[in-house]
Design brief:
single chain, about 100 residues, Aspartate Aminotransferase, domain 2, three-stranded mixed sheet, 3 strands
């Protein structure tokens, strides 16, 4: 990673090729030094909407990906800690704001 640029290859359709096996990015020279491949199980096994996947390749890039997912998952999980009255308070505030604009 001379330029600090990571390559993330979305290999979702890896197993859906008819004439020959689709080549993997990780077969390329120095690929494991510069990038990762993400595979989804939903395409191969017709599991639409399951959001089941895994990544292989450079360990430091996978660590960064894992950290990103932790941050993205923290916000929705915070909703479970929110008091039940919060959504209705937000709705009321938005209604008041819309009346001011009208």
């Amino acid at each position: 990673m001379d330029n600090h640029i990571a390559i993330v290859h979305d290999f979702a359709y890896a197993d859906i090729s008819f004439e020959h096996q689709a080549p993997s990015f990780l077969q390329s020279k120095r690929a494991k030094e510069t990038g990762i491949e993400i595979y989804t199980l939903s395409k191969t096994f017709n599991m639409a909407g399951w959001r089941s996947a895994f990544a292989v390749g450079n360990a430091s890039i996978i660590k960064l990906l894992k950290a990103t997912f932790k941050i993205r998952l923290a916000a929705p999980l915070a909703l479970f800690k929110m008091p039940v009255s919060t959504p209705s308070k937000l709705k009321l505030r938005n209604e008041n704001n819309s009346e001011i604009l009208i």
